[in-house]
């Protein structure tokens, strides 16, 4: 029942006015990379698949809908036996994705396609948003560890749990959120709060008690009273008094306030002087890709970043705007394209049930994505003529390129066809794409290169014909 | 299991190192009003109460924790039988709240108090954020209807559903999210998507089909092709051709793109000219309190605002930063205050297990909030001497004022003492406070008046003594 009410009113309308026999194709795409970045990361597909496979209406749902007083009993009876009978095509989860290309295409009877709209968007929007943000933060951390500390500032429980999942796909190392660890097998981490220190009679007592319980994993929070005059000295003292006699080393200290670059440098020197060169410094407190970049430019010797609210809400850009637009209607076995016109040219949709290819040069770099008609298979034995829709007058060719079709049929007639990858596979897939396929120029934060979305000549012609027809009609 | 892992490591530490007999008091408070506003609205309490009353660890939870390899079997056995045994004091849900005052105080054995931290914060942060944002938008709409359209851009399912609940508390009229309607009894609303129009062979056919199914509630989306040349004329035509012969009136049209103020004015004139003066105009598309204010200043004749992404993510300020800080420890029946020191003066906590009074003048306006020691009851028979902690040198009195204690004991020894209000009561409570108690000067968007948080002389003295003692110690 996670749907917008209009999906129900429309479904009932379709049910009443039409036979639910026409199949339609809906594309899911987004228009703008978050944070003015060069790309996004596709997250949420597993959750979408689970939703679609389990979609049904139970007695309570039917009763609730009946109580609205606008739905016919025939329609309610139909819903009672409803299950999704359509097909789902999608990019693999974890794919690098770009604006205006269909990342998911739902091909299904009208009603089936209409009522999954909101859930598909919500799940994709949320997880893609957080995976993309997490990856930006991980890139800024430049090889250092990033841990998710976001649960308490997440937009409720699912946002914490699925957000942790998405952050892991994006490259975060661990989460503090126990439920996410339990549900997805992400490694959980956590140390102590200020309350641990404040509960005890002194900071030294607090660290000592913690070291006695966790001699192997002690990370002391050193900013409760005074980092340099109390926190770090007490941490060193407990390392010497308590841990060393047990043959243990202090694992780390955590800074959670103040001037993190300055404090980390001072603390590093104090730790090193005490022979604790292997003690890690962890920093937290409203971090994101921008503050982490700044800390590293300042030479802050920080080994681990605990990132919370700015990751789990994608604070600097908290809306991922994927939309769900009808692209085609199948009438008597023939797909008719549909296009959404807008006064803003960039909001005109790419019509038709179509394919997306990623085009790689001979070094394996993804140089463009390409929209084609459904029946087209690029011939790679010779230079491939394509259209840049922003400069259709140019005669352009892909030479010595390979083409990978990005959308895969994963659900057919309501049945899952494939085994979905594990979370670690998704995380590795993101890493591999960024290391080998995606230009570094698309990965920088400032004015990244804009990935091309080109069209096959046939596809471009179809779109132009459609636009001409519509504007002639008027 | 919605908790940060450190709550478990600390709980285990407390279990191992101490007897779980000391009771502690944790305060939940926030430091900054969202969007530079004058106040926030407290949401999420019902969800917190449900969480606390149901908190337990099942076999799978215990197995997951055991697999972490750091918890003793004694502790795991203890968790197996765990239930929350403490007390919860809280402001009524829907209360207007201000920075740095304890909105919730958890008084419980150490472990009980520690492990509810994250869930309490997540639920309060999310719902308070959205209730506050929704109320800003409702205030901007100045009596016009606001509907929640946010689900697809919410941070996953809970964010959509509990966000709709919070938005309703904040004053929104209805939600498009069916699951929220079902779960909380909020009235649901919804019309049609562009896909309805695009599926049909023409816009006229689409409107006609919809009017035939919903003669009483037809709201036509008029911007699929061209608002003024196609959408509004087709809407009028269907009102005449289809609805009027049935004795029905067209309920409304919806604008979802373009220059909303301009289009609404033009559309209004066309509708009026056609005798459809009672047809409402609804607008949507990235609206929030700022765009709505601008539309109304321009004289846009809009009756209903559909608000989505900027409401459900609180886009302009998506983090509500309530924190959970230890305020006191009960030793042998005596409460010892605890304070968190910080180099930033505004981050020094208000120590001790304490009370909050709201102070009203003779006209019933809330002129300040007041922190007192636990045992203090203000004597209202004579002027009440209080301290403004920012100007402690001034001799200040509340005269002819009444005092309302804001925190109520709602859970005692793990049992719920009170009946929680209905959602409609919460919404009315918000409305009543804003109409009668809260200064208009605190409700404006630009430079709102800052509500005072004063202290009783006894409370102020306690805090100063504590600070002196700490800084003397060093």
Give structural notes:
2 copies of one chain form a homodimer. Chain A is α/β, with parallel strands linked by helices and 474 residues long. Chain A has helices at residues 5-17, 45-54, 59-67, 73-80, 110-115, 117-141, 157-169, 178-184, 194-199, 203-213, 227-243, 260-273, 289-297, 309-312, 423-437, 440-443, 457-473; strands spanning 23-29, 40-41, 87-90, 96-97, 104-109, 145-148, 174-175, 219-221, 252-255, 280-284, 304-307, 323-331, 334-337, 354-360, 366-373, 384-386, 396-398, 402-405, 408-412, 415-416, 452-455. In chain A, β6, α7 (157-169) and β7 form a beta-alpha-beta unit. The interface between A and B is large, with 103 and 103 residues.
Describe the strand arrangement of the main beta sheet of chain A, using strand numbers. Answer: 13-12-1-5-3-19-20
Low-confidence stretches of chain A: none
* Counted beta strands of chain A: 21
Rg over C-alpha atoms of chain A, rounded to the nearest angstrom? 27 Å
The multimeric state of the shown protein is homodimer
Largest interface, with Cβ-Cβ < 8 Å? A-B, 103 and 103 residues
CATH class of the largest domain in chain A, please?
Answer: Alpha Beta
Measured between the Cα atoms of the first and last residue of chain A, the distance is 40 Å
Bin the helical content of chain A. 25-40%
Largest sheet entry of chain A: 7 strands, antiparallel
Look at the structure and give the mean pLDDT of chain A.
Answer: 95
The CATH architecture of the largest domain in chain A would be Alpha-Beta Barrel
Shape descriptor of chain A reads globular
Structural class of chain A: alpha/beta
Strand content of chain A: 15-25%
- The domain tally of chain A reads 2
Specify the number of helices of chain A: 17
CATH topology assignment of the largest domain in chain A: nicotinate phosphoribosyltransferase
**CATH superfamily membership of the largest domain in chain A:** nicotinate phosphoribosyltransferase
């Amino acid at each position: 029942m996670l749907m917008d009410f209009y999906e129900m009113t429309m479904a009932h309308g379709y049910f009443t006015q039409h036979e639910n026999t026409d199949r339609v194709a809906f594309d899911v795409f987004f228009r703008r990379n978050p944070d003015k970045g060069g790309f996004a990361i596709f997250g949420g597909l597993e959750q979408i698949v689970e939703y679609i496979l389990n979609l049904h209406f139970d007695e309570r749902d039917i009763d609730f809908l009946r109580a609205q007083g606008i739905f016919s009993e025939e329609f309610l009876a139909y819903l009672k036996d409803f299950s999704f009978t359509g097909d789902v095509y999608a990019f693999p989860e974890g794919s690098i994705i770009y604006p205006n290309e269909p990342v998911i295409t739902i091909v299904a009877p009208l009603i089936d396609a209409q009522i999954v709209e909101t859930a598909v968007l919500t799940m994709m929007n949320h997880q893609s948003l957080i995976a993309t943000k997490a990856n930006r933060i991980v890139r800024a951390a430049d090889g250092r560890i990033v841990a998710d500390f976001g649960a308490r500032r997440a937009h409720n429980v699912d946002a914490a749990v699925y957000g942790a999942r998405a952050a892991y796909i994006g490259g975060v190392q661990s989460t503090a959120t126990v439920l996410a660890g339990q549900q997805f097998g992400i490694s959980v981490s956590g140390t102590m709060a200020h309350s641990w220190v404040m509960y005890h009679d002194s900071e030294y007592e607090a660290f000592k008690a913690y070291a006695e319980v966790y001699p192997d994993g002690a990370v002391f929070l050193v900013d409760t009273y005074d980092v340099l005059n109390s926190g770090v000295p007490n941490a060193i003292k407990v390392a010497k008094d308590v841990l060393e006699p047990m043959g243990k080393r202090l694992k780390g200290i955590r800074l959670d306030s103040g001037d993190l670059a300055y404090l980390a440098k001072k603390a590093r020197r104090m730790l090193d002087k005490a022979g604790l060169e292997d003690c890690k410094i962890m920093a937290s407190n409203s971090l994101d890709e921008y503050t982490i970049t700044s800390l590293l430019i300042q030479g802050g010797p920080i080994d681990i970043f605990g990132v919370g609210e700015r990751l789990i809400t994608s604070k600097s850009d908290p809306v991922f705007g994927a939309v769900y637009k009808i692209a085609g209607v199948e009438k008597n076995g023939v797909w008719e394209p549909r296009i959404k016109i807008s006064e803003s040219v960039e909001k005109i949709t790419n019509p038709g049930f179509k394919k997306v290819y990623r085009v790689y040069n001979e070094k394996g770099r993804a140089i463009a994505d390409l929209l084609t008609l459904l029946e087209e298979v690029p011939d790679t034995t010779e230079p491939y003529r394509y259209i840049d829709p922003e400069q259709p007058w140019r005669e352009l060719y892909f030479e010595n390129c390979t083409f990978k079709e990005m959308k895969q049929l994963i659900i057919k007639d309501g049945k899952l066809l494939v085994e979905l990858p594990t979370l670690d596979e998704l995380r590795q897939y993101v890493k591999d794409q960024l290391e080998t396929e995606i230009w570094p120029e698309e990965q920088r934060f400032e004015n990244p290169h804009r990935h091309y979305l080109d069209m096959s000549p046939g596809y471009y012609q179809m779109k132009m014909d459609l636009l001409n027809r519509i504007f002639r009609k008027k």
